[in-house]
Amino acid sequence: MTTQRTVLVTGGNRGIGYAIAEEFLAQGHRVAVTARSGEGPDGALTVRADVTDAAAVDAAFTEIEEKLGPVEVVVANAGITRDTLLMRMTDEDFDTVVDTNLGGSFRVVKRASKGMLKARFGRIVFISSVVGLYGSAGQVNYAASKAGLVGMARSITRELGARGITANVVSPGFIETDMTAALPETQQAEYKRNIPAARFATANEVAKVVAWVAGDDAGYISGAVIPVDGGLGMGH
């Protein structure tokens, strides 16, 4: 039986974030999601927040703390892409992606750490990407932001590890979402040729790993990068 926790999933209104929130709900946890628009799954508390705004993040946490109690598990999932080749990438394309994906994770985790330090317990899970360490043409900004999460998790582990707080990175590969479904069949087939598992993952397969690493059985795992990519990123 897992201990019931208060869980926050950022960007929990669609895709992987939505599936993660659903999995924590199914396990009986108290779940909140942040979203700029849309709603989290039934049973979750949805709060409006833009992770690029520290005041908005603080207000979201205050609301969650009042309604569900201190956040014990935080899943930093909110992210965006602005893909284009290096020569065409503007400063704004780069800064916006890094400020959301890496800066947003920093703001959320910094605010969450207050309650975790007080409780001497916390689970921090960053959602990165196989692209963070594998690289991807046209994604210099996105890959840099996702690689940065590894350094963040490992530094937090060294800082807060003695306080019962873990920080890990879950690194998904290609997942069946609206985004991958929109790709041309030929492109999907090409991607699958490079994946040893020869298929895309379901969002639920990622969610189960996130819930496990945030649970009671993973208390001695910290600073780890856990790939959920069908073997695509092996060796990274």
* Main beta-sheet annotation: 7 strands, parallel
Global geometry: globular
Low-confidence runs of at least 5 consecutive residues: none
Q: How many helices?
A: 8
Strand content: 15-25%
- Going by helix content, strand content and strand pairing, the class is alpha/beta
What is the residue-averaged pLDDT? Answer: 96
Number of DSSP strands? 7
Instruction: Tell me the span between the first and last alpha carbons.
Output: 34 Å
Order of helices and strands: EHEEHEHEHHEHHHE
Instruction: Please compute the radius of gyration using only Cα atoms.
Output: 17 Å
- How are the strands ordered across the major sheet? 3-2-1-4-5-6-7
Helix content: 40-55%
Walk me through the structure.
By secondary structure, this protein is of the alpha/beta class. It contains eight helices and seven strands; from the N terminus they run βαββαβαβααβαααβ. A seven-stranded parallel β-sheet has the order 3-2-1-4-5-6-7, sandwiched between helices. β4, α3 (91-119) and β5 form a beta-alpha-beta unit. α3 runs parallel beside α5 (140-160). It is globular.
